[in-house]
Amino acid sequence: MTQQPEVIYLKDYKVPVFLIDHTELRFELKPDKTLVKARLKMRRNPESQDVTRELVLQGDKSLLLCRISVDEHVLNESDFQRNEQGLVVSGVPDQFLLETVTEIHPDQNTALEGLYRSDGVYCTQCEAEGFRRITFYLDRPDVMSVFSTTIEADKDAYPVLLSNGNPVAEGEADEGRHWITWEDPHPKPAYLFALVAGDLKLIEDQYQTLSGRDVALRIYAADKDLDKLDYAMQSLINAMRWDEQVYGREYDLDIYMIVAVDFFNMGAMENKGLNVFNTSCVLASPETTTDLGFQRVEGVVAHEYFHNWSGNRVTCRDWFQLSLKEGFTVFRDAEFSADMNSRTVKRVEDVALLRTAQFAEDAGPMAHPILPASFIEISNFYTMTIYEKGAEVVRMIHTLLGADAFRKGSDLYFDRHDGQAVTTEDFVKAMEDASGKSLVQFRHWYNQAGTPVLNITDAFDSETKTYKLTISQSCPATPGQEVKQPYHIPIAIGLLDSQGGDLVLPNGETTQVLELHHAEQTFEFGGIHEKPVPSLLRGFSAPVKLNYPYSRDNLTFLMSHDSDGFSRWEAAQKLGVDILQSLVADLGQGKELQLGLLLGDAFKVVLDNKDLDKAMVAKVLTLPSEAYLSELADVIDVDAIHEARQFVRQHLANQLETEFYSTYKVCTSTDAYSPSADSIARRSLRNTCLSYLMATGKQEYLELALVQFHEADNMTDSQAALSLVVHSNFVKAGEVILDQFYQRWIDQPLVVNQWLSVQASNPQRGALVQVENLMKHEAFNLQNPNKVRSLIASFCSLNPVNFHAIDGSGYRFLAEQVITLNSLNPQIASRLVTPLTRWKRYNLDRQDIMRKQLQRIMDSGELSRDVFEVVSKSLA
Ligand code: PHE
Ligand code: ZN
Questions:
Q1: Out of 185, 309, 515, 837, which could bridge 249 as a Cys pair, Cβ 3.0 to 4.6 Å?
Q2: Does 268 sit in the ligand 1 pocket, CB within 6 Å?
Q3: Residue nearest to ligand 1 atom 6, measured at CA
């Protein structure tokens, strides 16, 4: 890197000098090149103070400018200037027509931003700044324009030509070519533009909106995948209905299209009226898709649909405001999934993810507030923080305001800002205005990074019959933010009597939200007759770490009595963490591991309780993950964490073998597969039991797993059995079924990806060699992000023991992949490097070898802005 890339600051924001009222595009798609003809109706922005006559357009280096004219007057070299960022045209009038002809090369586009080809299908990805790889433009979200798009291509190879809005004209052209023109009446920023051209098939349905308008719903995919689209369609219809019922939001075009493509950097994209989806987030069938996959399809389809209001109708002023649309939309899709399935299970899953991945981000070198103050490359800010923590912040507003006031706030936000590009401040203001509740202090959640820590102590006075909770808060320093102001934190609590019943709290209910404002605050409860057991942070009412000196008995008590399902799970997790942490410490001191019966007895009570939701039983029985234990550790001892967890699993397996086996049998069913919450729950508990049975190491359970593998009529059961056997000591059996699995699913790329991932995450020795071999396998392709995620990312994040091998082989491997991918696909390269950036969390030996590999990436030659930002911040 010769030149230090520029840092962009929120404080430098200025309104655009020019606006684009109308954008007319014509794409001529040809095998060797694509011509993009743009006609932009532009005018000076009356709100801008800037009087310059220079028009600055963004345009990627790769664009070949063939022709440019202003008001039909062709410009020559002296009228404009090309530079690294784009184009500067001098002497433009207040209102004008700008026309350009640009040549681009979609076939050489491996970065998958802009216009590229995925398995022969042309498609676009414009968020965040991909449109500038298509043509010269004001590529910023506060420039909103009406688009009209004509696509011309070979008719046989590309019978389907799609863009945003409605088709308004079509015709034949010479040499077997055809064209279609699409018009989108809704002004939109360029990042919501989309184009698709290919040989695609579709399924179609109809939806009638609340006000009685008919909408055509179309989902496009390759012919071979046509049988896997029904679940996405049903999810879309459910999401449309839900958004009408819960938010009063209707769809606003005549057509809603989804297109599935195999090469995609992210999950999916909410382009107006034409979502482009990663196949992994839209295709679903019982034979090929796990329950998790079904739920992902439902959630992502809904997420992209909800963006039509939270993102498209009301969009972001600039990219610092990304969480405005993403945090809100994740909150919306989480509530949707909670309503469609089990609310508690959804919450547990989301919290587990947040506490491992997002908390780790907050504790790392890339920590940033949900409203960041600066960035080098915006693609690096599509993070757990912007998305998941952003959703938690919206959830806290919901908790503080209550459902009714929150709805009033969202109505006001949508009405006030419809058609505008706005800020998170506008969102918070609407919530305040509609509810009358001050969110002044609450705003710290938007501009402070880091995970707040709550320390809670309590005291009971039997004379005055008062119970006091004293809560103090702090937040660790993060890069660029040494000192934090106290947050406004909603803390939902309950108090349990010695029988396990809920006490009635001052608000007349059994759960009350305490509002913490100060660094330390005491809350008093009167009329309490015995010392209660507090149930703290019910439903995870704030994204914080909470310390309270629970005894192990307190925790088992809460596990079986807390009326809040989330808190019962949380008590089990806390108990697991407590036990595992002390075993990790024992290992550190060379002590032999010992474990009593307490945890097993508590698990047995849960297993025996027939009233509980099976999915929740499975969650409670699952020990805290290695990732979560790592996040909690001061210094991460990878091997000790793995060993301690394996030890406890084996111990529980032996203690409760009979119970696990009988529960396994109870959960076995001959009913046909259904992705309903009930049957997902049954499979989940059954596979949890199987994993414990396998942990006994007994041959008979290997047989059981093999029977399940061979007889399964669905991918959930087959994949669960596969990974249990492959990850066990039964090496030969694992090899045999891996082979059978591959042969059976060779034509289903998404299943083959699972096959890669099972091998990459194998904790047994030798996984790296296996991964390196698989990189040469026909099933692998470094240019396909799904393959990279399944193999390389799985190894580096789901296989801590092997990735962190003390000889440094895992780190070297990752550095090599990042260096290669840096030039092929910078976004993927920069995401991949994450595990190395966490080097400060490990012991000095590991720190040293991890740093060396980061430095090696740094010195490897010209780095993309994406990789440069992450690696340089990690080394700082
Ligand atoms: N905006 C997309 C979503 O959250 C994610 C995305 C970002 C996709 C950037 C592609 C590129 O739904
Ligand atoms: Zn989104």
A1: 309
A2: yes
A3: 269
Q: What are residue 179's DSSP bridge partners?
A: 152, 171
Cβ–ligand 1 contact at 112 (below 6 Å): no
Q: What is the ipTM of this complex?
A: 0.99
How open is the CA angle 445-507-352, to the nearest 5 degrees? 40
CATH superfamily of 1-107+122-199: tricorn interacting facor f3 domain (2.60.40.1730)
Q: Are 772 and 791 in contact (CB under 8 A)?
A: no
What H or E segment, with its residue span, contains residue 322? helix 322-340
Length of the chain: 876
The span from the CA of 730 to the CA of 36, in Å, is 58
Average pLDDT over residues 283-290: 98
Cα four-point dihedral sign 657, 663, 664, 666: positive
> Do 1-107+122-199 and 462-561 show the same overall fold?
yes
How large is the average pLDDT for residues 143-147?
98
Q: What is the DSSP letter of 389?
A: I
In the predicted structure, residue 2 carries a pLDDT above the cut 90: no
> How far is 550 from 560, CA to CA, in rounded Å?
15
- Ligand 1 mean position to 333 CA, how many Å? 14
How large is the average pLDDT for residues 749-757? 98
* Threshold 0.95, pTM exceeds: yes
CATH classification of 462-561 is 2.60.40.1840, yes or no?
yes
Is the beta carbon of 270 within 6 A of some atom in ligand 1? yes
pLDDT score of 1: 45
How many angstroms does the Cα of residue 338 sit away from the middle of ligand 2?
A: 18
Is the link from the previous residue into 653 a cis peptide, with omega within 30 of 0? no
In the chain, domain spans: 1-107+122-199, 315-447, 462-561
The tokens describing 237, both together, are 């219809």
Output the CA 387–ligand 2 centroid distance in Å.
8
Q: Kind and range of the H or E element at 117? A: strand 114-118
Indicate whether residue 831 lines ligand 1 (CB < 6 A): no
93-119 pLDDT, tens digit per residue, is 999 999 999 999 999 999 999 999 999
Catalytic residue among 99, 304, 392, 570: 304
- H/E stretch holding 173 reads strand 166-173
335 within ligand 1 shell (Cβ under 6 A): no
Strand order across the 466-474 sheet:
520-525, 466-474, 453-461, 545-547
Ligand that lies nearest to the alpha carbon of residue 114, given by its number in the listed order: 1
DSSP per residue over 705-720, as a string? HHHHHHH-SSHHHHHH
Q: Is the CB of 626 under 6 A from ligand 1?
A: no
The tens digit of pLDDT for each residue in 722-748 reads: 999 999 999 999 999 999 999 999 999
* C-beta of residue 144 within 8 angstroms of C-beta of residue 188: yes
pLDDT of 775-816, one tens digit each? Answer: 999 999 999 999 999 999 999 999 999 999 999 999 999 999
Lateral strand order in the sheet of 201-208: 201-208, 214-221, 255-261, 274-278, 268-269
- The best mutation among 112, 113, 118, 127 to test binding of ligand 1, ranked by most ligand atoms within 8 Å of the C-beta, falls on 127
Q: Is 21 helix (H, G, I), strand (E, B) or coil?
A: strand
CATH architecture of 315-447: Orthogonal Bundle (1.10)
Beta bridge partners of 102: 36, 65
d(CA 98, CA 70): 5
Query: Which pLDDT does position 31 carry in this prediction?
Result: 87
The residue whose CA is least distant from atom 3 of ligand 1 is: 269
Q: Concatenated DSSP letters for 721-742?
A: HHHHHHTSS-HHHHHHHHHHHH
Whole-angstrom Cα distance, residue 797 to residue 644?
19
Give the separation between CA 406 and CA 432, rounded to whole angstroms: 9
- Of 131, 193, 269, the one to substitute when testing ligand 1's pocket (max ligand atoms within 8 A of C-beta) is 269
Atom number of ligand 1 nearest to Cα 304: 12
Known catalytic residue at 304: yes
Per-residue pLDDT, 3 = 64
